[in-house]
Amino acid sequence: MTMADDRMNGLEREIGGLQARMETVEHELQAIRSDVREIRDTVVRAKGGWMALLLMFSAAAAMGAWAVQALNLLAGARP
Predict the structure, then answer these.
(1) What is the pTM of this model?
(2) C-alpha distances out from residue 51 to 44, 64, 78, Å
(3) Nearest to residue 1, comparing CAs of 9, 46, 44, 42?
(4) CA separation for the pair 5, 13 (Å, rounded)
(5) Do 73 and 79 touch, CB atoms closer than 8 A?
(6) Please, what's the b/e burial string for 13-39 (b: 16 or more CB within 10 A of its CB; e: otherwise)?
(7) In the predicted model, what is the mean pLDDT of the chain?
(8) Which helix (H) or strand (E) holds 75?
(9) pLDDT digits over 41-77, tens only?
(10) What SS3 state is found at 2?
(11) Rounded to 5, what percent of the chain is helix, strand, coil?
(12) N or C, which end of the chain is more exposed by having fewer CB within 10 Å?
């Protein structure tokens, strides 16, 4: 073998190693993308849940205020 052959073999090994590392990075990146999507979906669902709770609390407060007004009117209190 000549020195040029040795350099080519070394270069091919280095390229092979880099390709293997790149494949590993691509697989890890795909896993990270999947995790980020799950986190995003969870946040979106939680946001919708908080909005629903806020709507329910607002409706309950309004109904309570109306009930107090109705009781005051029935009890003879002046508005």
Answers:
(1) 0.52
(2) 11, 20, 36
(3) 9
(4) 12
(5) yes
(6) eeeeeeeeeeeeeeeeeeeeeeeeeee
(7) 87
(8) none
(9) 888 888 778 888 888 999 999 999 999 988 888 888 7
(10) coil
(11) 90, 0, 10
(12) C
